[in-house]
Amino acid sequence: MARKVIVDDESPEITPEMFAQMRPMKDVTPGMAAAIKALRGRPKLENPKQVVSIRMSASAVKRWSAMGRADRAKLIAALEKKIEKRA
């Protein structure tokens, strides 16, 4: 099957001379480049969660895993409550 050639006068093919004249967007329009970069990704959290690793007995891990993902929030709440009592 032959490729169909599309002629677009508004978007000409880039020549080596044109390519040599190109500059990074951050050099040409620094404000726009910074605005685009600021909009990427999730917003930064004020208090991000941190990963914690603990060692638990096999029976405790088995019982915890059986609770399911929804009960992880309950476990975290119980830990926070216990910490508040000691503080």
Walkthrough of the structure:
- By secondary structure, this protein is mostly helical.
- It has helices spanning 16-21, 25-28, 30-39, 58-67, 70-86.
- It has a domain at 56-87.
- 54% of the residues lie in helices and 0% in strands.
- The termini are far apart.
- The model has no long low-confidence stretch (mean pLDDT 86).
Task: Describe the structure using short key phrases.
0% strand; mainly alpha; 87 residues; 54% helix
Separation, N- and C-terminal Cα atoms = 75 Å
Order of helices and strands: HHHHH
Percent helix = 40-55%
Mean pLDDT: 86
Count of β-strands: 0
Q: What is the 3D shape?
A: elongated
- Any idea what the radius of gyration is? 28 Å
- Report the uncertain regions: none
Strand content: under 5%
Number of helices: 5
Biggest sheet overview? none
Structural class: mainly alpha
Brief overview:
By secondary structure, the chain is an all-alpha fold. The chain is 54% helix and 0% strand.
List the helices and strands and how they pair.
Elements: H1 16-21, H2 25-28, H3 30-39, H4 58-67, H5 70-86
